[in-house]
Write a structure and sequence with these properties.
Glutathione-S-Trfase_C-like, Glutathione S-transferase Yfyf (Class Pi), Chain A, domain 2, GST_Phi_C, 116 residues, glutathione transferase
Length: 116
């Protein structure tokens, strides 16, 4: 269920924000502020659902880290370097979950390989 939520609800919005706030500035393009505002509101609603779920379990699928959590790591990583980080930080369970998935040794290794 949570992989479907990620792919159909979270990722389209988070990816749009990542494109506007990370990719466009890197390419010297102008950020569409209206698109950012619209998608921040949408992401906030999705993160409210995540917060509710993560009150009851450490990870989206339960007490074990699964692909449902892993699939969030790339776009969450990029969004943590933008103003959208505040949306995650405003929700304590989501904030802790993000810190957990981004601190995993395998994710750190993937980032190291990406730098090469």
């Amino acid at each position: 269920v949570w992989m479907e939520v990620e792919s159909t609800k979270f990722d389209p919005i988070a990816s749009k924000l990542s494109f506007e706030l990370v990719v466009k500035p890197m390419l010297g393009m102008v950020t569409d502020d209206a698109a950012v505002t619209e998608n921040e509101e949408k992401l906030g609603k999705i993160l409210d659902v995540y917060e509710s779920r993560l009150k009851d379990s450490k990870y989206l699928g339960g007490e074990s880290f699964t692909l449902a959590d892993l699939h969030h790591a790339p776009v969450v990583h990029y969004l943590m370097g933008t103003k959208v980080k505040s949306l995650f930080d405003a929700r304590p369970h989501v904030k802790d979950w993000c810190a957990d998935i981004l601190a995993r040794p395998a994710w750190s290794k993937a980032l190291e390989l990406h730098k090469q």
